[in-house]
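Page 42, continued from yesterday. The earlier attempt failed because a stray header line got pasted into the input along with the sequence. Redoing it now with the clean sequence only.
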Amino acid sequence: MSKVLAKMKYDLERISQKITERIEEILCDFSIDYYNNGDYISLSCPIHGGDNPNGCSILLKDVGNWTCFTHSCHEEYDSSIIGFIEALLSVQYDRKVNRAEAIEWCARFTGEIESVEEKKVDTNFIHLLKYIQKEKEYTNNFVPRDIVRSTTKIPADYFIPKYSRAILIEYDVGFCDNPNKSMYNRAVVPLYDETGQFMLGCNGRSIFEKCKECNRYHDLEVRCPIGKIERINTVKWKFSSKFDADLYLYNLWKAKDYIIKDRMAILVEGPGDIWRLEEAGIHHGLALLGSKFTDYQCESLEETGILHLVIATDNDEAGLKIRKGIEGRCKRMFNIYHVHLEENDIGDTKIEDVCRLFNPVIKYITQRI
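This time it went through. Structure tokens are written below.
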């Protein structure tokens, strides 16, 4: 540590916690798209310029840390949140920013620049209390399915012709044209509870493609977004407020009867993968909606009583990382099978190829029951 930093006597733990708490603001300031998954953020790694939206993650607990799954950029700078800022500034300034500069930037950003001794607050204890008190169930802010269907234009044209109109209608995937709603100008994927009768939240894809000027997703005939709110509203994908993807498996309401009957589930990454499986007549699919497999999702799988788990994550480095994580958690609980995709993901795979890849595995499993 430099003499200047030694004199400033920064509380690095407190600065790291404050940076973690405000990391979404920082990402917006740097025009970086991201998904807030509850306990962590998923994003394309801005350090090496990746294009995989699940290729990098930032934990939102305590002092935070980050991981680049595709190029291991965190190993060059270290995995602390300050290491992430150091890497981010190095890219921004097109030069190697040292740790002292990164710490000073963080100190200024968080208001910790003053050289004073303060009594340290036991924030770890506060975070622990919040974690203990966090409910495993969703709140009662449910939206009945008939209201969902009446407030969006179904099906969403954005996903046609990649997916059939019939499958989009079946899953109530619609377009939000209400400028007063947070999902305005997005193709909206409702996320239903286990009964399929109430929407717990939703995930919306901007109908616009990426602007080359600002890297946000907005109408190219209007100016680029400015300010935090406009930048948040122009990310590629966005979850509804307070929805926690860590506590959710997409399609459980529709697949559970098939899963219970055959004691088998197929685990994939996103809703589009589920839609393509369904178009191929395969009804055992569940999707993670994120870049990791959590304890709660594992418990949800176990509660269905399955014996067999088919893993079919995306055909990229991030998908491989997720697949290894799932297998590590589940290999002693279920019989594990892998379907290796020929395209990037199931959604990009033709229906006939989905049948060719999955049906032999399903047939083998069902014959064992």
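Notes: Residues 1-8, 115-140 have pLDDT under 50 and may be disordered.
Reminder to self: strip header lines before submitting.
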